[in-house]
């Protein structure tokens, strides 16, 4: 039975299971990596019954030769294992060729993220002189103040925004509410006024009246942002201009790390943080606890001492 035909069937199953586009694309890319390897190194014809564990061991060896991190290789393996689990459920296979394939041992790396001075510097790179400058400044401000995903940010509509919170659509099409500070509310109010004036002038100059898309952040033509690539490039360039340390990867997701570490540092509890991040598993959030120093832990313990609060 053709391997690639079964992959298409599996991706359709994910779509019907209400998986997000981003999740389905990740699974597809990870499985495609094995397909590319197999066709190049084994055979151009891929039959599901011809694939065995040796092929996957050779595949892992090639990934290691390419100096990929263990965490990334494990993500690829998990996606492929999930595909075989589906085939077993559908009774296409009785066993998986990956049953005996173990995940690689991952070395724990210290979590390094932005510091406060770097975030301030990145915000100061942009101003309110033009629409795109104001938009870029507010995109960075939203990411730093809320910790939301970039995929969630580009889908925020004006109607999702209030003076106190933003309603965001997260993974699995689950809605959640994230609070915003007075400072962020001020920036967004100023941004929306500039945005509306900017596009009204363009429409008047061209003599055409065209409805803008309903998203909060728009491209230069007034349409919604369809891909995160341009924002990723903008943030990387902003990091260079702000002299962010070379050891810190300047990306939209890095602001999520910054927000989480900062929230813990300021005393927010791990359960609330997990809820606001949209994590379905608390263990995903707990990795950030390693960022707390002994001094910070002692300070928190003293602050919440039971004896201190006895009356």
Automatic annotation (TrEMBL):
Main location: cytoplasm
Domain Tyr recombinase span(s) in chain numbering: 109-302
Domain Core-binding (CB) per the UniProt entry, residue ranges: 1-88
Record key words, sorted: Cell cycle, Cell division, Chromosome partition, Cytoplasm, DNA integration, DNA recombination, DNA-binding
Organism: Lactococcus lactis subsp. cremoris
Record's keyword annotation contains ATP-binding: no
Protein's UniProt name: Tyrosine-type recombinase/integrase
Compartment list: Cytoplasm
Domain of life: Bacteria
GO molecular function, one term: DNA binding
